[in-house]
Amino acid sequence: MEFILQLIDITLTTIKDVIPIAAIIFGFQLFVIRRPIPNLKRVLIGFAYVIFGLALFLLGLDKALFPIGRLMAEQLTNPDFISQWSDSVPGQLHWKDYYWVFLFAFLIGASTTIAEPSLIAVAIKANEVSGGAIGVWGLRIAVALGVAVGISLGTWRIVTGYPIHWFIISGYIVVVIQTIWAPKMIVPLAYDSGGVTTSTVTVPLVAALGLGLAETVPGRSALIDGFGLIAFASLFPMITVMGYAQITEWSAKRSSKKERETAEV
User: Fold this and answer.
1) Domain extent listing, the chain
2) Termini Cα distance of the chain
3) Between residues 61 and 53, which one has the greater pLDDT?
4) Would you give the distance in Å from CA 5 to the centre of its chain?
């Protein structure tokens, strides 16, 4: 009964959130473009699917993803667990003793990004538009690697307590430098790759991990240290995607050069 009441409450809240979007779309279609809405019945059914799907998704976040993210953070930072794998004295732990946290962050970042629906859609479109020059799996792996590195570095920042702006400013300096030298066709896609990672699958787990970690590591504040992992997850894919393009371009030029040298001989 409690589940049904929560679902109804979340559904009503979702309807309130979706109504402005529907009003803008229908308003422009009817009063600006001044044309009837094609396939109105199908559109309305689609909106119903969206509302119900979002309600279930939000309920799932509350019941599963957020709790499990915090639970994993609590378990991995538990002094009893860490003492099984470290010689450090409980209460005097070093950041190196949290290596299971960093490994978990890396793996969860990579796996959730690979499964991210928005990334899959962008990768397929990029492959189609580029005529196959941009591989679907190549892009997905490059983005996943960036997210994995970013989140693991972000968890290291939470454990050590270093200010977040050092990492973000340094990262964007690297992005600016890469932008100058990276193939021009990949730069906009690389920038968009940072955005598609902050979507339905990645954000809930990453946010829960960051908050859970900040709540369990001694001396950390959930408000100051718990947030920021999403920024890392958005930043580093830009670096890895442009790096992937630069390596691919360099490899292609090298192969072409070898072929010319072979032909001349």
Assistant:
1) 1-63, 77-264
2) 80
3) 53
4) 31
The DSSP 8-state label assigned to residue 183 in this structure reads -
Give the separation between CA 116 and CA 200, rounded to whole angstroms.
Answer: 7
Continuous H helices in the chain: 2-27, 40-60, 66-76, 79-85, 99-114, 117-129, 136-160, 164-181, 187-196, 202-216, 229-264
Q: Which of 234, 135, 153, 221 is nearest to 190 (CA)?
A: 234
pLDDT of residue 200: 67
CB 110 within 8 A of CB 131: no
Q: Which of 1-15, 56-70, 112-126, 242-256 is predicted least confidently?
A: 56-70
Whether 144 and 109 have beta carbons less than 8 Å apart is answered as yes
Cα four-point dihedral sign 178, 181, 186, 189: positive
Q: Which amino acid is at 200?
A: T
Of the candidates 238, 116, 133, 132, which has an alpha carbon nearest to the alpha carbon of residue 188?
Answer: 238
Burial 91-129 (b: 16+ CB within 10 A, else e): eebeeebbebbbebbbebbbbbbbebebbeebbeebbee
Contact 237, 150 (CB under 8 A): yes
pLDDT, tens only, 146-199: 999 999 999 999 988 889 999 999 999 999 999 999 888 889 989 988 877 766
Query: What's the pLDDT tens digit per position in 215-230?
Result: 888 888 877 888 888 8
Task: Give dist(CA 179, CA 236) in Å, integer.
Answer: 13
pLDDT for position 98? 83
Joined together, the tokens standing for residue 112 give: 């959730």
Q: Tell me, yes or no, if the pTM score tops 0.70.
A: yes
